[in-house]
What does this fold into?
Amino acid sequence: MHEKRSELGVRTQPLRLIRLPLAAAICFAMAAPALAQDTGQPANPTTTPTAKQKTTTLGVVTVTAQKRTEDLQKVPISISVLASDQLQALQVQSFKDYVNYLPSVTFQQGGGGIATGPGFASIYMRGVASGGNTNHSGSQPSVGVYLDDQPVTTIQGPLDIHMYDIARIEVLAGPQGTLYGASAEAGALRIITNKPDPSAFAANYQISTDKVAHGGIGETFDGMLNIPLSKSAAIRLVGWHEHDAGYIDNVAGSRTFPVSGITVSNAPGCVPSANNAPSSSNQCFGHAKKDYNDVNTNGARAALKVDLNDNWSISPTLMGQQTISHGTFASDPMVGDLAVTHFYPERVDDRWWQGALTVQGKIGNFDLTYTYAHLKRNQEEQTDYNDYSFWYDQLPYTYGNYIYDNSGALINPSEFITDRDHYTISSHELRIASPSDDRLRLVAGAFWQKQKHDIMQDYQINGLADSLAVPGWPNTIWLTKQMRYDHDESVFGELSWDFIPDVLTGTVGDRYFRTRNNLYGYYGFSSGFSPNSAYGQAGCVSPQPFEGAPCLDFNKSVRQTGSLSKFNLTWNITPSKMLYLTRSKGFRPGGINRIAAIPPYQPDFLTNLELGWKTTWFDNRLSFNGAVFRETWNHFQFNVLGPNGLTIIKNANSARITGLESQLNWQASYNLNLSAGVAFYNAKLTAPYCGFIDASGNPSTDCPAGTLNPSTGEDGPQAPTGSRLPITPRFKGNLIARYSFNLGSNDGFVQAAFVHVGERTTDLRTIESGLLGDLPAYNSLDLSAGIQKDNWTVKIYLDNAFDKRAAQYKFSECGVTICAAHYDPTTGYGSAVYPNGQVYTGFSQPRTFGISFKQDF
It folds into this structure.
């Protein structure tokens, strides 16, 4: 019997989201003039609009990338920044809105081939991407995402945070190991919120609505209150509701399973036979629907800042969000444009809250900062898994022969999944920084983090015989019930010395780390379905039940220690022009393979050598920044679906990424501002990926044609030397032009934002990449215009103006060589219904026209 699975999960107990009603925020905002009058304080210049001063110079952008507040142009790191005004001008509300404008960033949505909605993105930087299967028991992400100073990255994707009242997004490209640790092997993405301001009352609200071509109507309501409590304390309250319209249609259709001849249909008007019993020859599910993939997001943030005295302050924050999405965000070209035919309900409920605390103060003239965060995230998911059953029902697998009811009659083998994932992450960081104007400067600290991931996946078939079901779980053909812990402890420091003050500076950094990965639980079939399995009920290593599962069938852990180094030399040629040379290193912890015969996967390391520049020209009217680099990625982790459909994490030798990144900003005149970003990458293997290890447990590099893979019997390397790394284009760039003008006594603007993304491959392996096909290059154009009068602004926008189908990712629901297989008429293998296999494509949102109104107080 063929054993399986492609697993992507969502776990655990329902958690009630603490909400700040948006209506209250808006009501307070509408009452702002009276409240502001009562305070007797001047308006807050950071939140209250004033007449724009005409200028031909660029403003100063401050960042905290190096754990200090600094001018972007003085930081020797390749950083892209989207400031608050840019986020508003680009209509940014979520991750999918801003990733286009970050040349160094690419992503893969739902890498496990099941969940493709918000909150399931795998983020990559600088081409450091293997394109493998994203799985709850797989590798940790290579890019860390932070909300202020707190990490918000979980195994299957970071939080998709609604972007309102955000100060800026900082993107730090390249290894950030010394200051950010294991979660920033390839880079870090930081979302910085606006902080409470005790100097004055401020408030605003925004109302938006949009129409998606080929889809429905969406709307967004946002509100913010900044309330001074005293001269030294303030609270900031933010609330939001967002409805994103669907544009994928679940088209009425049917499919017949070859073994049993049972036909299933999702058409609302189909007529079931035999009361729709699982063994009936015609079964109806009635889930066809237009605009299938809508999303509803509600959330709130409350932040308090109290200045205890001139030197010490505390800032607690509580933030929560719930996102409920329906359907799938990818389409099946065999069904039609922006269309699928799915049979079971599809829904994700992603809800989380995070409590955080920042304490800042001084010990002597040293700055001391302590940050703490506690994140709880609950994802519950329902997924149609009919594709898996259909493709394994083909020759040579004939899956349906093994699926029957209590009477022994063959039944509809269609599967659906109920998943629950429960994440709990606690982190602490304590750091100290010497004065920034000293010739010898130090940043040093300690970090501790514990992640707990409680996993449950229930693969069900209606009417399944009791003897085939996992004991205690009726209709369950496969059960995953696991617990995962990831620990990270480290001490770090960076020391800078001005060899020549204001001219030549050297920096050395190091981070000593200790990590541990522990994974245990149950995964597999019942002994009645698979009596000889090495896992599942037949593979029990303990007779005691494990959290409702029949037993514990594996319990593994692995530990690692090591250190990361950084060296930087910065030359300030003039006060406005800098060159820097950096050698830095990042890493990702190793971990557990559940299958007994597969050893643990080892840590992978990324070594970066970079030459960068930060320059301003023409009296600060133009800035031109960039970096050229070469990164070596050694023994990188690669998540694949193994021969039995189980996720296996392997180490895949080495790769090299050579690239150039550059950003230009030009205040061409009082009215016209131009900005452009480009990234060029050459990312490829420097040794073949054989797909198996040698006698020493290292990835084998000796597999010329004629060499058989001992685990699969495949001939030669699965990816030869020189193969491109997937997901990353050779070129990605954007150009934004904004023209401001006077419209009577009011301020107006028009803006155009153009994005180009080059062709990308979809899988590291040659055969799998050929079956999935490449992602074509695409161009996208967003247009907007607006007018500001006193304290209100009206804006209209047209995103994806030419309604391009921008392919962003591809996947198949089970192993690529099964679900994406081409039909062979001589053997009958594959499916004549899908002669080119069944490959889903995720596209960017179709053309969207919208209008928004914002008012400040």
Observations:
- The chain has eight helices and 42 strands.
